[in-house]
Amino acid sequence: MDYRVVEKCVKKEREAQNALYQAIAPQMFSLCIRYMGSREQARDVLQDGFVILFERIGEFRNEGSFEGWARRIFSNSCIDALRRRKKISIDDISCTELESLNPGVCSALAALESGEIMAVIAQLSPVQRSVLNLFSVEGYTHREIAQIMNITEENSRIILLRAKSALGRMLAKEGYL
Fold first, then answer.
1. For 140-170, what is each residue's pLDDT tens digit?
2. Maximum separation of any 2 CA atoms in the chain, in Å
3. Do 80 and 118 belong to one domain?
4. What's the Cα-to-Cα distance from 111 to each of 12, 30, 107, 122, 127, rounded to whole Å?
5. Residues 69 and 109 in one domain
6. Does residue 99 share a domain with residue 142?
């Protein structure tokens, strides 16, 4: 990201805001789809996220990447929307964590298209999808997940374990394991 564009966005220059939008919207939309589960809901949250991003862009301090800072805003926007809607979805997971629980899961996932992975993961409960997404995709710790979801750290660990186990059973049932 060209930080001059960010600086111009702080000054509320429309062209710079449009350039920033064009640069990061596709990645942020993908993130929103992982959480929200539908393109329509993802579009709503994407718009909300950009409103927040442009309101808070002056808070960015060039510490770390701008994209990482923006991802945090969009992740939080999704989580807030999910709290209101009580619906969570995911399309990506950390394979190495699942492999220890269910041998062969990684090769099964590699054989699937992303749409097929989403369909399998969509069968998890909303809470399981949320914890799996926050931990495996977004990299949150169990402590952070507990704070975000208003649960205990132990509950976060248990939910993640159950999600991984259920995912392995579903893949086996579909004949991928």
1. 899 988 888 888 999 999 999 898 888 888 8
2. 55
3. no
4. 46, 21, 6, 18, 26
5. no
6. yes
